Structures are given as structure tokens and as C-alpha cells.
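Priority: medium. Attachment 1 of 2:
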């Protein structure tokens, strides 16, 4: 089984600069890595900004560079948090985050596993995301969280990426080497420069 939702690119553009970080569930429990997500996200953002020319010190260039750094840090942190929060730890499937840079966009790619029991609810959210207004979904979810308390599966991170950063997001779901209890999920976020 392979299913794709949203804006997912099967073959990444060639000739891009990239960085890949991997996290092994066998070394320490992924939930204990939670506090390191922000550090990893900031590292990715700092790494990325080294590819922007430094000779232009104008205020607009510096503001754009800071804006991109902030967006990369936010998106990477959200992707890592989701990957670790929803990963099927018992499968031993590693989590990775990739950052690809070309002249037009930054592409984030995370991979992790998800329990089959959580699959239907997640895909139902993705279907709503593709057919409904993301801003209205965001407002509705904020109101729901205020009434019921925050939800661990609210989708606010994805909705913020779309609404605040104009990101394009896609997902790919695949069976994991015959494993019946988990699915490999790849999340892709494209951020135009």
C-alpha cells in the first residue's frame, strides 16, 4: 500500500544542498529526546543560513535572512515533534529529518512510523485539510482546544505552516517491509524562498 496526500514530490530536485539528521529509537527512548527537538531545529536553521550570501548587509536582506531562519526553525521543530510524538516506538523504525535547499525553495522531509490504529484519524484530518479552508480549520481548532483543552493530535502545527508560512505540505504512507502493525509515513514541507 502506498498513498499520497497533498503536495508531495516523489523525486526531489537534483543538485540541491542537503542535510540529514537521524534519530535511532534503540539508543534512548524517543520521548526522552523531546527536549532536543528545539536544539535540532535551531541547528538546521543555523546551518541553512550559511548558504545565504553575507556580502549584502542591507536591512531588507538581513530581515529576509532572519525571517527564513525563524521559519526553518519553527517548521523543523514541529516536524520533529510530530514524528517523535506519533512514532510507533515498538517498531524500532528510525526517525529522520532532511533539509534540502535549492534556489527556489527549502524542502523538509521527515520519516517515521505510525501505528495502524492512528492512521485513519490522521488521514481523515489530511482529507479535511485538502478540502477545507486552512484558516477556518485553524480557527476552529483553536476554539476546540480552548473549550476542551489542548489535543495532542490537533494539527495546529501543520495549519500554522500553511497559514503563516504559505508552506505546501504532502504525506506519503507505505507499508513497512511486511510489518502489519505500523506504516512508514513521510512528511514533506515545501517553503518558497
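Attachment 2 of 2:
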Amino acid at each position: 500500500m502506498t498513498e499520497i496526500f497533498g503536495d508531495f514530490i516523489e523525486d526531489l530536485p537534483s543538485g540541491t544542498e542537503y542535510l540529514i539528521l537521524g534519530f535511532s529509537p534503540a539508543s534512548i527512548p524517543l520521548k526522552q529526546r523531546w527536549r532536543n527537538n528545539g536544539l535540532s531545529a535551531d541547528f538546521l536553521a543555523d546551518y541553512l543560513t550559511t548558504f545565504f550570501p553575507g556580502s549584502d548587509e542591507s536591512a531588507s536582506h538581513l530581515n529576509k535572512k532572519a525571517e527564513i531562519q525563524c521559519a526553518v526553525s519553527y517548521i523543523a521543530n514541529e516536524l520533529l515533534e510530530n514524528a517523535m510524538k506519533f512514532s510507533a516506538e515498538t517498531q524500532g523504525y528510525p526517525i529522520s529529518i532532511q533539509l534540502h535547499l535549492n534556489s527556489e525553495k527549502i524542502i523538509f522531509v521527515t520519516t517515521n512510523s505510525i501505528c495502524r490504529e492512528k492512521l485513519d484519524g490522521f488521514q481523515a484530518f489530511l482529507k479535511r485539510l485538502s478540502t477545507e479552508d486552512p484558516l477556518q480549520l485553524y480557527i476552529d481548532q483553536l476554539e476546540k482546544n480552548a473549550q476542551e483543552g489542548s489535543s495532542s493530535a490537533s494539527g495546529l502545527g501543520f495549519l500554522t505552516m500553511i497559514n503563516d508560512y504559505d508552506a505546501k505540505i504532502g504525506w506519503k504512507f507505505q507499508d513497512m517491509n511486511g510489518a502489519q502493525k505500523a506504516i512508514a509515513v513521510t512528511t514533506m514541507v515545501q517553503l518558497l524562498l
